[in-house]
Design goal:
With 247 residues, the protein is mainly alpha-helical. The chain has one domain. It is built from 8 helices and 4 strands; from the N terminus they run ααααββααββαα. Helix 6 packs antiparallel against helix 7. The radius of gyration is 20 Å and the shape is elongated. The relative contact order is 0.13.
Length: 247
C-alpha cells in the first residue's frame, strides 16, 4: 500500500524539480505560471500524502479483509498525485494566452483531482472509524461477525474500477520527453467510471446503514453521511458536464 503512493509522490517531486530547472530557458510569463502551478501542486501532493498516511495507520490496525480496501485507497491517492503532475505538464505545454480548449483541460483536470480529494477524505474518515470499532461484532443470521464486515462487503466492488483508473494514470507517466502526458477523453472517462463506482458503493453503504442503525447499534456513529455522498455526486456531475469540451 505504502509503495504505491510513495512512488507516485517521488515521481511527481522529481518532475516538479525538472520543470523548475527548465523554467530558466522559458519566457518569463511561462516561468511565472509554471512556478504558480508547481507551488500549488507541491502543497496539494503533500496534503494527499498526509491523508494517505492517516489511512495507512488506521488500516494496518484492522483485519485482513479491510486491508484489501487500503490498497484501492492508496491507488486512488496515487491517481490524484499523478494528475497534479499532469496539471503542471499542461501549464508547461499550454501556457496562459493559448486556446480556450487548453484552459478547459487544465480546469477539468483540477476538477477530477477535487473529486479524488473528496473520495480520500471520505476514505480517511471511514478508515479511522473502522480502527475505532475493530473489536466490535454483530450477529447476522445467527452468526457473530466483525462489524467491519458489514462495511467491507459494500466497498469491495470499488476496487476493480480503481485498478483500471490507476492503470490509466500510470500510462500518463514518462512520455515523449515529459514526465507526464495529456490524458485523452477516454482516459478521463476511465477516471469518471472509477468515481461513479466509488459513489455508488458509498451510496449503497450509507443507505444500508441508515436502514439498519436500529438493528446494528454500532453503525450509528459511522461518519459518512448522505450529505457527503450528495457533495461527491455534484462534483462528479460537474466533471461530466465539462468533459463534453475535451477533445
Amino acid at each position: 500500500m505504502a509503495a504505491v503512493i510513495e512512488d507516485a509522490i517521488e515521481d511527481a517531486v522529481e518532475a516538479f524539480e525538472s520543470y523548475t530547472a527548465e523554467g530558466a530557458d522559458l519566457a518569463e510569463e511561462v516561468t511565472e505560471e509554471m512556478a504558480e502551478e508547481i507551488a500549488e501542486a507541491k502543497v496539494e501532493v503533500q496534503e494527499i500524502s498526509k491523508e494517505s498516511s492517516v489511512i495507512k495507520k488506521c488500516i494496518v490496525n484492522v483485519s485482513t479483509g479491510i486491508k484489501d480496501l487500503g490498497i484501492f485507497m492508496a491507488k486512488n491517492a496515487a491517481i490524484g498525485v499523478i494528475l497534479w503532475g499532469v496539471n503542471v505538464t499542461l501549464a508547461k505545454l499550454f501556457p496562459k494566452g493559448q486556446g480556450q480548449s487548453e484552459k478547459q483541460k487544465c480546469a477539468l483536470i483540477k476538477e477530477v483531482i477535487q473529486v479524488i480529494k473528496t473520495e480520500i477524505c471520505i476514505s480517511k474518515r471511514m478508515a479511522k472509524w473502522l480502527e475505532d470499532h475493530k473489536e466490535e461484532t454483530v450477529i447476522l443470521d445467527g452468526i457473530e461477525i466483525p462489524l467491519e464486515s458489514l462495511i467491507s462487503t459494500h466497498i469491495k466492488p470499488v476496487s476493480d474500477a480503481i485498478d483500471q483508473a490507476y492503470s490509466v494514470a500510470q500510462s500518463l507517466q514518462n512520455s515523449d520527453g515529459n514526465p507526464y502526458k495529456v490524458p485523452t477523453a477516454g482516459d478521463i472517462q476511465k477516471f469518471l467510471m472509477a468515481a461513479d463506482a466509488f459513489l455508488n458503493a458509498f451510496n449503497f453503504l450509507v443507505a444500508f446503514i441508515n436502514e439498519n442503525m436500529q438493528k446494528f447499534q454500532g453503525l450509528c456513529s459511522f461518519p459518512v453521511k448522505k450529505e457527503d455522498i450528495d457533495t461527491l455526486r455534484e462534483l462528479i456531475e460537474n466533471v461530466k458536464a465539462e468533459k463534453m469540451n475535451w477533445s
